[in-house]
Design goal:
The protein contains 30 helices and 17 strands. By secondary structure, the protein is an alpha+beta fold. A hairpin with a 6-residue loop joins β4 and β5. It is globular and about 60 Å long. 59% of the residues are buried. About 2% of the residues have low confidence.
Amino acid sequence: MAGGYMGKILWVDLSEGKWWEEELPEEIYRNFLGGYGLGARIIYERQPAGVEPLSPEAIFGVTAGVLTGTGALFMGRYTAVGKSPLTGGWGDSNSGGYFAPAIKQAGYDAIFFRGKAEKPVYLAIIGDKIELRDASHLWGVDAVEAEKRLKEEVGQKRAQVAVIGQAAENLSLISGIITDRGRIAARSGLGAVMGSKNLKAIVLAGRARINVADRKRMTEITRTYMKKFEGKMLLEALLKGPGLRFLARLLSRKLPFGIRQEGWQWKAILKRYGTSGISALSALNGDMPIKNWAGAGIVDFPISKAKKVSDDAVIAFEKEKYNCYSCPLGCGGIFELNREKYGFEESHKPEYETLGVFGGLILNDDIDIIIKMNEMANRAGIDTISAGETIAFAFEAYERGYLTNSDTDGLELVWGNGEAAYKLLEKMIKREGIGDILADGIKKAIEKLGKKEMAEFGMHAGGQELPMHDPRYDPGYGIGYEGEPTPGRHTIASYTYQELMAIYKKYKDVPKEPPLYNIKNKYSTENKGRGQMYASLWQELNNGCGGCLFGLQTGIDLPLVEWLNAATGWNLSEEEYLKIAKRMKTLRQAFNAREGIVPGRDFRMPGRATGHPPLKYGPVAGVTLDMKKLVGDFWKELGWNPETGIPEKKTLEELGLDFVLKDLYPEG
């Protein structure tokens, strides 16, 4: 066996209370790597089409990347995989922390579950011993407290725990899975899949060795990278709060051209502030959606408000930095808080997305409320993006008269009322009153309320709520929201990411004409699909390795190909790895098609997100996007039908996905 992967997976049948190992051939890893590539390959083959996501027959898994634990940097993310109850198609969500290496140290590249336990259980792998243990006493306990108790029960402080909170137990379709006392794999609603199986947690404390084909070469590559990463960067010290806000003011107007942001700038912001460092800038330059996507920061959430939920105002609570496994950056942070005021003494620093949805999206500038909502969401295991977007939807529904005080149990859902948002989030977690309607996200809420006209301001794509990056500011995000196998996702590719990754000079084996990146006019549709595809494939490859997106964006070219070859011994070319990435992406899209989803029809965003009609004021005023053209060109570059998004027969054949052909092209 080559290095990098463990060569086997663990299966757990919760209905039968049984488990067994399965060895996988090297071919599986060479074709799909790890992470969601491996997850998609196994689930596509083993789970029949049409299985309900919350049924016992559904398969749920946690997977590690090929480079996790090999000495490669930024490789600390695990991926949860399964059919999404939120979109009805392929579902995946990844998170940092320290759970990813624990999967491999337990001896596996992935752990898959099927069936449903009669009562709540948790899987414990301690050393070489595997057990399904009773978790009835932990049902209803929040994720942070449950993690603490589980480590005490197994007698291992070093044990890593993936656990669900009350939201997933209540089968909220916007619930996730929590590790490390507040890191959450939040998207796709996979926490509800765990909850539907009565699986409270996975506790891992194994001691398996992770082999590497060429340890000396791995060390050399990593040392060379770190020398570049740690190099002093000009003007880095100037990127502090006031400087960021000055930049935000400068950019708070519509620009027909792009401004290239170098990765070293982003590295400096992340190292000092984490993602909270861009909140004020994004609120003012048009990147952050404001007032449920109908407003503009410079008018509705100006600098006097935005600065209260950004950079220095956020890290004022930080007592220490937080680094995920194998991360030299440390963009996370741990807050020290007054228990009497906040209800707890410690929490993870809220990310930009959280600050946006609980801040500018509802015009709330109360950082104390946001911190409390962030911790409540993390402990209950509910996705802050989906929850915040759903709350903003409810605010606008209240403003328009679709919801009244009697519907909201007296909560006044008026813009800026952070206290009402806090109480509404609590209701969603507990499924109380209006919270029961909102707990499954916007698409389901509209169906339950029976008012189709509300879809106009329900900001989701294919059922998944949109993140805090506006396509009217960066159309590349819109391509990701509508064009990727998991819709409504911002962590795969955009024009901004192409800049940060220096996509225009990254690839050695890819022809530079037509250009990979067109900086001249970000609203032009010319040659945009090609650059978006290559940026997306590089991140696809990174996800298969277990890598963090920020590792690709810090100004130093992450040596994925070199690390992969040293770890595995495969000695594949850049072109061959790109083909693997394309195969992974295409299989996930084929899963959607097999489930009856037509992305070109089912993953469309509301017109508000694309400038139909355009905003009348602010940095992105007057912007109207041709998403059909932008997404269609992206799909065409991938070899998918530019109208439907379904992979073409020729593409499936070229990628060796013969087992998919019978499902998508049964006529032969």
